[in-house]
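FORM 7B: Structural annotation worksheet

SECTION A. Query
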Amino acid sequence: MHIEGRTGTGGPAAGEPAGGRTVVRVLFGEVTLVTGAVLALLIGGAGAVPTALGCLAGAMAVGWVLLAALHAARRAADDARAYAVERRRLEAEVAAARAEAAAAREARDAAQGRLRRHADVVASVNHELRTSLGGVIGFTGLLLECELTGEQRDFAETAQRGAESAVETLNDLLDYSMAESDATPLEAVPFAVAGLLHGVAALASPAALERGVALEVQVSPAMPRELHGDAARLRQALLRVVRAALLHMGRGRIVLRGEAAPDGPSGWRARFLVEVSEALPAAFVAQVLGGARPSGAPASSVGGGALGLAISRELARLLGGRLAARGADGHGTVFELAVPLADVVPAPDPAPQPA
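SECTION B. Predicted structure
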């Protein structure tokens, strides 16, 4: 059977709030109590006073309950509206944050894509130029095996050194492009710290001997003998710093120093210092600090080695560290390569074979 407007005999009409009917019923009961008290006084006289007072007390109690209920309902409605407003605000903020994160991911992916394409172009150009320069180096080598006058030999040797220098510059450009695009794969292998520093000194020793610069290696006793990290990238970064410093030195001394401090339960904050006895030009040092020469300094004041330092900066960034430079007590210059490294975890002993 279909009933219009009501469900059951005492239910509210469709669309009518149940709270309103409840309030009406309470008010009706209170009016009834007051009316009963008045009638008791009119009919019973003085003997009906207790009954009338009881009715009035009941009416006052009902009134207080009604007021408390109305106050609670109003407060609940206000809280519900505030909650709804706050929820809409938080939902809008979450949506905006998600949109910003998505836009940042898209921008990052686009930038990495551009850098990778740039690295691919640099690698292609590098290959073409290296092929041509390889021919120049080969033919000047053949030329130097011929009978030449002193002047002719000097010209040929100069051409060969220039071609070899150009090949090194191309290699630096390729390494920088790969490091900047994060295309350089990192390795994590155990390595001996002292062996790493001695290897850098050995690779830089020909250029150091040519300039009359002494190379020394010092390792702090607090540094572990072996650490876990990318030894090849560390060696590249340190070697380029040493070679760049040698370009600005006459006679003097360079000390390669290794230090470390604990960094977490199984990690180390390694500091590799390149201590140069001479104070290097401020414009050159600024290449390490900020990647730009001081204001007003001519480009020629920077000199060689800036590209090598840029590569070292990028390699330090890839390794999770940084490259910095500072003066040493008013004389000399100190380059600091700080990177996080891990302890070498010994291999577990093989399980005993059953007899």
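SECTION C. Observations
Residues 133 and 331 are 41 Å apart (CA to CA). The radius of gyration is 43 Å.

SECTION D. Sign-off
Analyst initials: ____
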